[in-house]
Amino acid sequence: MKASGCSGRQPAARCSHPGVILFDLLSALLDSWSLWDDIAGGRGPGRRWRMEYLELTYAAGAYVPYLDLVADSAEAVGLPRDCAHELEARWDELAPWPGAGEVLRRLAEDRPLGVVTNCSETMGRRAADLVGAPFEAVVTAESAGFYKPDARIYAAGAKAMGAAPAEVLFVAGSPFDVIGASAAGFAVVWHNPAGLLSPAAEAAAASVLDDLRELPSLLA
Question: Model pTM?
């Protein structure tokens, strides 16, 4: 049964005990939205830039340089292409969502954790280190050769963890990721602290969470 844990909705559905948990990194675990907003000069332009980036990235398929997509999306919404270089320079300012490190360290006590992220190899590993969690695998779009929601990057994530898709719970951070991970055969929880709207993603996710600290209570 599909259910949601968001405010004003019915309680989140419990998930069967997963063999492994894979996470989106830049939206599900890290508050990258605030950094993009700051670089863009406010929440409005930051959101337009970020949503354009998501559209370009999720349409890309095969890997192209990550910062090229960041620059292309900035230009498309009227921002300087140099925003991409500022993002790279300030990358280590990315902050985990409240409780993320603590939650993941607790989950890692009895199951392996990994990351599947639409990012370059260098920037993906830098970002993963900021979470403060013991990841057994960090699979980037560059290392896999494909951007999400191409099924091959999700498959690379499962392979890196030594798991079949049916053994994986995927914690997504965007509507595109929910749909892509579901199509790849993963059970999906959507961590949506940014308040994005997508009925299709809500229908595909087993649960939708405002706060990552709700995740442990979902696991049977």
Answer: 0.90
